[in-house]
Design brief:
Elements (H helix, E strand, L loop, with lengths): L9 E2 H9 L1 H10 L10 H10 L4 H18 L5 H21 L13 H4 L6 H19 L4 H8 L8 E3 L5 H4 E3 L7 E3 L4 E6 L2 E8 L12 H12 L9 E8 L4 E6 L2 H19 L2 E3 L4 E2 L11 H5 L9
Parallel strand pairs: 1-4, 6-7
Antiparallel strand pairs: 2-5, 3-4, 5-6, 7-8, 9-10
Helix pairs in contact: 1-2, 4-5, 4-7, 5-7, 10-11
Amino acid sequence: MGNLENKLIWSSSRINTLDFCARKYYFSYYQSWGGWEYDASPETKKTYMLKNRQNIWGWIGDKTHEAIKKYLIIPKANENSIKKAVLHEMDLEFNQSRMKTYINGNLKTFGLIEHYYGKEVSDNEFIEIKERVMDNFEAFLKCKYLPGILELKNSKGGMRLLKVDPGQDFEKMRFQVSELNNTEIYALPDLYYELRENEYLILDWKTGEYRKEGEIPSVQLRAYGLRLQNVEKIDVNKNKVEALEVYLPDFKEIGSILNTDHMASIVIRIKEDLCRMESFLLDPRINTPKEKEYFEKTDCEGKCIGCQFQELCK
């Protein structure tokens, strides 16, 4: 990992972090960089360790996505076996988190923010956490799209498009757009596939609070459309491409059919985001950040309470 280069890239999660708090953005993408190295400074290692902590709601989302991915990727997947496997993994991770094994071991080992900062998570609360994950997975198994997805998955011909995000594969997330000077874009939906000839559907599972306001389709969904145009060569002007965020377990949906205006607007938005991120750099060519103090802390105390870096801001 020592030869990795810290490049300035665009992703919705990166820009969302900057919107959330510029100091958190600094910790996440600059001060934590290289924390995996043996000879990294204690400060860098601490920041890298904290970057890899997760809150309960993020954990619920990750385990829900993991169960869904297993079901869609594994041939002849058995839903009960997947449930048992995910619940077993959660038991192991919860025990690791309680013991804080990451402190003197692998800094990426799972651990909850709540445990790190001394908040007790009772056994009953843990049972409810696991139930939420199973409720989300059960809702997915009953969704109206699943029969068509499974038909494609089990198709022997395999001619129609069906792509599932395998998770934790950054190479597969990456693509480039000529209009953006081939800046690396990281965007990969949970699932996209061909419904029928010249008709495509992008699905992104959500487990958080239903988003009632904001741009429709979202920045993230438009970025997924940009991926289809540049990676799969699917022109939204010549094909029907619908992009939806699907909230589990209630199955509320938000999104729209994508068009050329959406694609033009996301290119403009990414350009604006890149300019904004570059304003925090001493040298944009090599992604060298300005001093930490230039990255101002949020003035919202509510954000700080749930932030994994709160220890570094005291």
